[in-house]
Design brief:
single chain; alpha/beta; Rossmann fold; Methionyl-tRNA Fmet Formyltransferase, Chain A, domain 2; 2 domains; 7-stranded mixed β-sheet; 7-stranded antiparallel β-sheet; 18 strands; 24% helix; elongated
Length: 314
């Protein structure tokens, strides 16, 4: 039986781990990020992979920092056939990568070499890409630079969010990995180098990127909203208040009002953006409150907002 050290953290990783178990691979260890405090109550929460590993009765490791930890030395001594990572969230030391008998394999959420880095799915949605996909690749010291074993593309629909694309790619990644592993085990040297001239990076989303800028068109703003849903969420500055926008719709109309102006507030809440484009806000979340429909939001505002006025700060 082929032995595997599995490394992953979010929901994306769970079907991949379960698929390996269901297909009779021996999971010697599951490595995931440490439990962390979540939400206003700062409740200590297990990672989705830890929850799944506990259900499967698998040994769990949660080093705060894998490199130079006691845990990594123990993992190295296992001399597993394979390391399989899927959105783990830490760099892997070279000596650990070299400790396996066959290969260290990563399930990456983009069509490499496009979108190396920690937020490939987010950038594919934010940039309005028509497709994304999964790459099964060899892990090397340089981030996401390893040779490619297999790839599969999927279409990004106009109503997709990062959350929905994550869900789709998780299943694609599971299936493509299970399809590819037997070939990797039999022929680990059969792989294709990435084209270094086509590399695009996708660094983690910064706090500055969460703000919806008025320099964007309505379509670009909508892509940002979709790309930051469900986490961390994109926001507008409505006067002095932060308003998160979870769902919006690009209007077909054009306006001559300056960007940030209120175009309509009757049965919709429409804001002007760059190049005279208009965005209808559909689901929002005022600071300190829960998500709500735009109608519920407007019902609580009375006549505060006037059509034609600048209501959003750049």
């Amino acid at each position: 039986m082929t032995s595997i050290i599995f490394m992953g953290t979010p929901d994306f990783s769970v079907p991949i781990l379960k698929g390996l178990v269901e297909n009779n691979y021996e999971i010697k260890a599951v490595v995931t990020q440490p439990d962390k405090k979540v939400g206003r109550k700062q409740q200590v929460t297990k990672t989705p992979v830890k929850v799944a590993a506990e259900e499967l009765n698998l040994p769990i490791y949660q080093p705060t920092k894998l490199a130079r930890s006691e845990e990594v030395e123990e993992l190295i001594e296992m001399h597993a056939d394979l390391i399989v990572t899927a959105a783990y969230g830490q760099f892997l030391p070279t000596k650990f990568l070299n400790s396996v008998k066959i290969a260290a394999v990563n399930v990456h959420g983009s069509l490499l070499p496009k979108y190396r880095g920690g937020a490939p799915i987010q950038y594919s949605v934010i940039n309005g890409d028509q497709e994304t996909g999964i790459t099964i690749m060899e892990m090397v010291k340089e981030m996401d630079a390893g040779d490619i074993y297999a790839q599969k593309a999927i279409k990004i629909e106009s109503d997709d969010t990062t959350g929905s694309v994550f869900d789709k790619l998780s299943l694609v990644g599971r299936d493509l990995l299970l399809e590819t592993l037997p070939h990797i085990i039999a022929h680990p040297d059969e792989k294709t180098a990435q084209d270094s001239d086509q590399v695009v990076f996708s660094p983690n989303i910064s706090k500055q990127q969460e703000k919806i800028s008025l320099t964007l068109t309505a379509s670009q703003a909508n892509n940002l909203i979709r790309g930051l849903n469900p986490d961390p969420g994109a926001y507008l500055m409505l006067g002095n208040s932060r308003l998160k926008v979870w769902q919006a719709q690009v209007s077909e109309e054009k306006t001559t009002l300056p960007a940030g102006s209120l175009v309509a507030n009757d049965n919709r809440f429409a804001i002007s953006f760059a190049e005279g484009t208009v965005l209808n806000l559909l689901e929002v979340q005022p600071a300190g409150k829960k998500k709500m429909s735009i109608q519920s939001f407007l019902n609580g505002q009375g006549s505060k907002f006037k059509v034609g006025e600048q209501v959003v700060d750049g």
